[in-house]
Amino acid sequence: MVTKGKQPSSARGTRTSGGSARNTSQRAASQRPAARSGSQRNGRRRPSAAVYRRRRLVVFISLLIVLGLVTAGAVAIASSLTGKAGPATQATNSPQPQDSQTAAPGASGTASPSAKATPVCDLNLVTVAASTDAGSYAAGKNPVLGMKVTNGGSTPCQVNVGTSQMEFQVTSGADRIFSSRDCQATSEDLVKTILPGKSETANFVWQRNRTTEGCSVVNAKPGAGTYVFTASLGNKVSPKAVFQLR
């Protein structure tokens, strides 16, 4: 009977002890959340690396957009300025009337500015000279009259040296003695290219006769004396070449 009465007492003590342990664990569990919430309020959480990368990307894209807008505005301003300056530039580059009037013969009016102009012969530098094969001729000796056409320029020249352009004339004072054109049967053109510093020559044997315009018959013969020979090519006349007939 005594043994049975003690066992329940021990069992109750054990339950009391167990209840005390449960109360202790509950109090500890109730205190832990309070501790965590306190640490969250006192300490600031640091952003992660991914957040930093996103922020940098947003800033970079914003800079690109701003630069694009600035560039587009500059291009628009430059385009408007260029459009306003266009007519003035065209007027400056347009050819002037005096340029077309003074253009060198043979130059193309549509040639580009960068194209090199073809050198043009200066006909003013083409000269004509007269000569004889001797200074004095005995009776019965016919003088050989010579014409020499020389290009004194620095570029080749095309010159008409045909009989249509040349004339051999002999005078004595004011007396017109002879002209190769008076009795010329045919008149022909002969264009030759004369290089710089080069010459073309033509010779004519004078029969010591007189001629008149229209090739009328003249019976008189030139006598002994001093004569002057001049050669002509177009509108160019040579200096005088003096010779004697005996």
What would your notes on this structure say?
By secondary structure, the protein is of the alpha+beta class. Among the domains are: 36 residues; 123 residues, Immunoglobulin-like, CATH 2.60.40.2360. Strands 2, 5, 6, 9, 10 and 11 form a six-stranded mixed sheet that branches. A hairpin with a 2-residue loop joins strand 5 and strand 6. The N and C termini lie far apart (202 Å). The N terminus is likely disordered.
How would you sum up the global shape? rod-shaped
- Regions with pLDDT < 50 over 5+ consecutive residues? 1-21, 33-42, 84-114
Series of secondary-structure elements, N-terminal to C-terminal: HHHEEEEEEEEEEE
CATH architecture of the domain at 123-245: Sandwich
Averaging pLDDT over every residue, what do you get? 75
Distinct helical segment count: 3
Q: What can be said about the biggest beta sheet?
A: 6 strands, mixed
Rg, rounded, reads 61 Å
CATH topology of the domain at 123-245: Immunoglobulin-like
> What is the H level of CATH, i.e. the homologous superfamily of the domain at 123-245?
Intracellular proteinase inhibitor BsuPI
* Category by helix and strand content: alpha+beta
- Terminal CA distance reads 202 Å
CATH class of the domain at 123-245: Mainly Beta
User: Could you tell me the strand content as a percent range?
Assistant: 15-25%
